[in-house]
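[retry 2/3] Branched-chain amino acid ABC transporter substrate-binding protein: previous attempt timed out, resubmitting with same input.
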Amino acid sequence: MKKITLSALSAAMLLINFTGGAQADDTVLIGLAGPLTGPSARIGKDLENGAQLAIDDVNKTHPTLGGKAVTFKLQSEDDQSDPRVAVAVAQRLVDSGVAGVVGHWNTGTSIPAARIYHDAGIAQVAPVATGHGYTQQGFDTSFRVMGHDDDGGNYAGEYAVKTLKASRIAVIDDRTAFGQGLADEFIRSLNAQGVKIVDRQYVDDKTVDFSAVLTAIRSKNADLIFFGGVDSQAAPLARRIKQLGMNATLMGAGGFVSQTFLSLAQKEGEGVVALEPGLPIDQMQGGKAFEQAYQSHYHTHIELHAPFAYDATRVLIAAMQKADSAEPERYLPALRAINYSGVTGAIAFDAQGNLKNPSFTVYKVVKGQWQPQTVLGGSAK
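[retry 2/3] Branched-chain amino acid ABC transporter substrate-binding protein: success.
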């Protein structure tokens, strides 16, 4: 009797295992690549938080693909903002079987990683990566959900001349794909307006002492200094400009407008001007609700680009849902043709994978806070 009971129990357990496997949700992996360690780790974590919030919101709706229940899962990888590491990270995500990737953060990592994703045939939706070169490689798997620097540099140049009335303009860039590319577009905009820069200086993305380049610029009596670089360097640059008693406005684009800049620059940041892709969060169509959800879930403020990571994740999943498949050959056509209403605004892509009709906002530090000055571009463009 005992033997029969055990055999019956084993058979029942075997049956449960088989039926349980058939009924279990299929997991669809979404990759996230960004700087999760190092000087830009706060940005990477912000992107990861935004993407994870999107995954959680989708899973709450009990999604299905091909008639089967699915669960989306985020797989995060740290690219350390290093192009060589980014290539290894991209290959690791591909080898893990991700259906698509949200990332990378900057242009320098996104460009080399794009080839890996293209060769694997999966989508890469960059939440930031504003350098136009990312989508100029001819890969039909590359997309971005914010405007690129050709537009941003042009708007920044026009604002510097027409609104700030700057006439003696110097340029510094960090020699990265992002910083140098942005500075080049800014100068191109100035040239189109008949304005020649008085000086151009170079640093690298690890420079902390700007004394030498600023001493050279001070001798040229610049009234505006444009910096192609990110907030962690812009803050000590702003501080040094004040310490040297220079009467020049510091201006940047794409990467300045963060709490980190304000905390590092402190009083020296007053009057700094920056142009950032996208709308202020309180002007985004879903911005206020997103900010509340983010703060409720993570108990911290949005650092910079979390809403764009959220939308990059949601638009990738929306394409899968429209195609009713997580297979790239099926969802990629849907992604290319998508019209999606996101937190940050309407998302649709041009033939290169760039966001159509991107908006840009000019901010200024006033009384220790970034305050929007004007919105450029957008649907009226």
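[retry 2/3] Branched-chain amino acid ABC transporter substrate-binding protein: Residues 150-277+361-380 form a domain with the Rossmann fold fold (CATH 3.40.50.2300).
[retry 2/3] clearing retry counter.
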